[in-house]
Specification:
Rossmann fold; binds S-adenosyl-L-homocysteine; globular; 248 residues; 7-stranded mixed sheet; alpha/beta
Length: 248
């Protein structure tokens, strides 16, 4: 069980697998005002940077579930490096349908809402592991500018314009689903650069080390197209943020 190989190659050197910077995660951890011992569940925890740094900085405990074997291993190493391995646990698994035995204070899905079949389904899934009165964290793209054509949406990595909402629509949708938005932290274009541009040197180095790999052609194609696609489309059209929600 694993995610498509291109991500395990192109994002192998990433600590954060989305347009959030370390500062964005630090801000989010602070504004949530978590007490030591707050228990956080993270669906699609990647290389564990959110849980590990929050365990170090705020004394939280956490469980992360991620389908990438590589990222899950990196998360465990990061926990040891930051001295929080006794407080956070990373499980390599598919989080689809996962319900935790121990209910949490904060249930997060930061950049992986396909796990619940979209934002609404992910909220429903996270709620099954959340204590009453707890906080949900949803990390999701939105359109900074609405793409003029479906082709432009596809160049941004979406399957269609309908995949994402504008920020106004996304915020309204949480309200309409019966949630108070109690905090939000938004990424910016430089955050997108850190996420996407950081794949380029990784891909280049991987290609130099693995010229005869079956995957070399795909990695080469990605390295050639990604910079142009990034500056022309993703960076301009896509926004990204984490929204903290509490049920009314
Ligand atoms: N929240 C992390 C990672 C976001 S990227 C961070 O902030 O860095 C999306 C993550 O979802 C990847 O790590 C990927 O391996 C994971 N993923 C994809 N499908 C999944 C699934 N079905 N179950 C669990 N994790 C999944």
């Amino acid at each position: 069980m694993d995610i498509p190989r291109i991500f395990n190659i192109s994002e192998s050197a990433h600590r954060i697998h989305n347009p959030f910077t370390p500062d964005n995660y630090a801000t989010l951890g602070t504004v949530l005002r978590m007490e030591p011992g707050t228990h956080v569940l993270d669906f699609g925890s990647g290389s564990g940077e959110m849980l590990c740094t929050w365990a170090r900085d705020h004394g939280i405990t956490g469980v992360g579930i991620d389908m990438s074997q590589l990222f899950s291993e990196q998360a465990k190493l990061r926990a040891e490096e930051l001295g929080v391995a006794d407080r956070v646990n990373f499980i390599h698994n598919d989080a689809t349908g996962y319900v935790a035995n121990e209910k949490c204070d904060v249930a997060a899905c930061v950049g992986a809402t396909w796990i619940g079949g979209g934002v609404a389904g992910t909220i429903e899934l996270l709620n099954k592991s959340l204590k009453p009165g707890g906080i949900l964290l949803i990390g999701e793209p939105y359109w900074r500018q609405l793409p003029p054509t479906e082709e432009v949406a596809r160049e941004c990595g979406a399957t269609s314009i309908a995949d994402f909402l504008t920020l106004t629509q996304l915020v309204a949708s949480f309200d309409e689903s019966g949630y108070d938005i109690v905090e939000m932290v938004l990424a910016d274009q430089e955050g997108w650069d850190r996420y996407i541009a950081a794949t380029w040197l990784t891909l280049r180095r991987w290609l130099e080390a693995n010229p005869d790999d079956d995957f070399a052609q795909e990695a080469r194609a990605q390295l050639t197209i990604s910079p142009k696609r990034h500056v022309t489309y993703t960076r301009e059209y896509l926004g990204w943020g984490v929204f903290a929600l509490m049920a009314r």
